Every structure is written in C-alpha cells, then in structure tokens.
Amino acid sequence: MGLAADRWTNGDFEAAIRDARAAIALNRRLEQGRTFLAASEEWSNGLGHDEAARRDWQACADLVRSGRAIDLPAREIPARLLFIHSTLDRSVGDYQAAAEETRPAQAPVEGQGTFPTLPFRILNLAYDHDVTASRQLMADQNGPPSTSFATGPAMERARQAEAVEDWPAVIAELEAELPRQQALGAPAREPVARMLNSLLAYALAHTGRMAQARALIGGTPMDCDFCVVTRGRIAALDHDWSAAERWFTLAARRTPSIPFANTAWGAALQARGEPDAAIAKLSIAHAQGPHFADPLELWGEALLAKRDYAAAALKFAEADRYAPRWGRNHMLWGEALMLKGRLGEARRQYQAAAGVDLSKPDRAALNVLLARTASGPLHD
After folding, report:
1. Range of lowest pLDDT (11-15, 61-65, 93-97, 161-165)
2. Cα 104 from chain centroid?
3. Beta carbons within 8 Å of 115's beta carbon, 6+ residues apart
4. Which CATH class is domain 259-380?
C-alpha cells in the first residue's frame, strides 16, 4: 500500500494500480489500498478506465460503510463516504449531488477523512452548467489554489469555458498549461497529456482547426474511455458519421453503467438530423445516469425537432431538476412553451435564461427574443 501511495505521488498510476491490487490481495480490509486503486484507474480521466474506476470506488464505499476498514478511524468515516459518494455521483453525471457533497463545510478540519472539497465543487458546478456560481466560488476561494491540473485553476477555467462553448478560451487555457505539464516527470506527464490533449482537440475541432484536432486525438491511447468518446465527438463535428459510430460503439460497450458515451452518441445523431435514433441513445444514457441533465436536455431538443412541443417542455423541466441554472435548457424550454402557446410561461423561462451564463450565440438569440417580446402576449 505504501508503494501504491508513492507511485501515486509520483504520477505513475499504472504502477500504483498494480501495487494497490497487491495490497488488497493481502488484506481486503485496507481502505487506502482500494482508494489508490480506484483513483489510479480514474485519475480524472487521465487513464480513463471509467468502468473499472466506478466498480472500485463502489467496493471502497461498501468497505467504509461496513465499518470493517482496518486503516480508517470511525470518526473519519462520514467524510470519507462523502468523498467517495461525490466521486461515484460524478462518474454518472449527477453533478448536482456531487456539488452538494463537495461543499467545504461537509469535511472535518483534520484527519485522513478530509478531502479538498473546494476545487472539486468548482468543477462540479461547472459540469452542472452553473458557470456563474462556479466562477464566483473560484474568485472567492481562500488560500492557495490546487496545483493539480485535474483540479487546478487552468482546468477549472477550461471547464467553465467549455460549459458556455467558449472554445477559444478553452484553447487558450489548455495551451498555456502545456509548458507547465511538460516540466513534470515522465510518469505523471503521460496521463495528464491524455486528458489535456483530448480536451484541446475537441476545442480545436469546434473552431474549425480539424487537422490539428485529428492529429492530437489520434495520439491518445485506445484504452482511455474519455479519449475514445472524444474521438467520436470530433468525428461527428467533422461529419465523419461512420467513424463517430465506431468510436461511440466501442466506448459504450466498455462503459455499460456510465452515460457519457451514449449521451455524446445521442448528441451526434441529433446533429445529423436523426431525432428518433438520438432519443434511443439518450434513453439508454438516462437509464445509466438518471440524474444527469445532459441526456434529458438533448432529448428535449430531439422532441423539439419532431415538433412534439409538449413532450419537449416536459423533458426540459425534468433536466431543470438536476441543472436548475442551465441557461440553454431554460431558453429551449421557453421555445417549447412558446410553440405550444403557453406564452407567459415561455417569457419566464427566457428571463431565467437571461440571468445565467450562456454561450455567445445563445445570448445573442435570447436578447433578440427578449427585445421582441418586451410587450404583448409574452409580456403578460
């Protein structure tokens, strides 16, 4: 277990996995051994063994909950369970719950049971499309920021920019971070590069720099689930539908309990103009992550495309339960209500969207809608 900790500290996560497994084989009641195993499998998608990481985190939760862990004092169990549950919730897109579980007040002041709640909460809020709160929390934080790329300021700003589709800002953050990451030792650099290059490639593809995007994502390993999903998303942006289907099929097969591959697949099918096929994938994603707002919002978009406005409004309302400050969801919810003739309700959704962060295209469209509906039926 000590070797696993040492490997983890030095960023050699594949060796940490081997040592943690060896420790657990010797004593299955070692909580730290299970933590190092799960965290090394996941490493915030650096290694990208998502299904294995979720399985190992669940085993860790079961051990801690049982009270049989030999290396965890009873007083530290509540905080450890909060940390593990927040990780499990994040792994299936329940970012609202994960954000609550990473409130700084949730963890005790000292002891092994503590965990760095603030950087995780900043990221969870961004993933939950509450960019306003994420940025405010980042601005208000006390003390030095995290030095880990996985939870550090560069990653926080990149994820916030991604949430509002500010792709130039994502590119700027990641390209500025590259020199610092290149200064790391070789073991740590490789898994960081997998995550960083995948995010950067996706942002480049959105800005039309497709050749660079393909080159970057092509250098990522095939055993990284996050990387494979990103390959599919980039192929879809490039309208290479056969390649997108190939990558999404591979990722979905490897992650049967995780919703991200099917969510991205559904989004690609919707972009291709196949709303029924999109809904089929999004329904699977929703079953895998019932509290993940993204499949529900995309499902609503597909229903809008099918002109089923009442059903679309219901889906946007359901997504709102799990991401209540998602500007795009409020905006499209308003559109569905307007097309259904529920004009006063539509206006209220437009006003809700106006009060939170939006992408530049959505903000421009919303400003036009608000200006045109400043009086008349939608004003009532």
Report:
1. 11-15
2. 20
3. 79, 82, 83, 107
4. mainly alpha
Q: Which two tokens stand for residue 105?
A: 């007040």
Specify whether the backbone of 342 is left (phi greater than 0), alpha (psi in -120 to 50) or beta.
beta
In the predicted model, what is the mean pLDDT of residues 200-213? 97
The full set of domain ranges for the chain reads 165-256, 259-380
pLDDT at position 293: 98
Q: What share of the chain has pLDDT > 70, as a percent?
A: 87
Show the tokens assigned to 226: 């996050």
Asked if residue 156 lies in contact with residue 139, where contact means CB atoms within 8 angstroms, the answer is no
Q: Please state the pTM of the whole predicted model.
A: 0.91
Q: Which of 352, 348, 353 is nearest to 378 (CA)?
A: 348
List of residues 6+ apart from 105 with CB closer than 8 A:
none
Contacts of 1 (CB under 8 A, 6+ apart): 19, 20, 23, 30, 32, 33, 36
User: Please, which pLDDT band fits residue 341 given cuts at 50, 70 and 90?
Assistant: confident
pLDDT over 60 (residue 166):
yes
Under a CB-based contact definition with an 8 Å cutoff, are residues 67 and 74 in contact? yes
Nearest to 370 by CA among 325, 338, 341, 342: 338
Residue type, 296: L
Question: Tell me, what's the pLDDT at 94?
Answer: 98
SS3 for 259?
coil
Q: Which residues contact 347 (CB under 8 A, 6 or more apart)?
A: 334, 373, 378, 379, 380
SS3 label, residue 272: coil
Cα separation, 157 vs 153, in Å, equals 6
Whether 127 contacts 90, CB under 8 Å: yes
CB atoms within 10 A of CB 214: 19
Q: Is the dihedral of CA 24, 30, 34, 40 positive or negative?
A: negative
Report which residue type is found at 50. Answer: D
Given the structure tokens 């997998």, which residue do they identify? 194
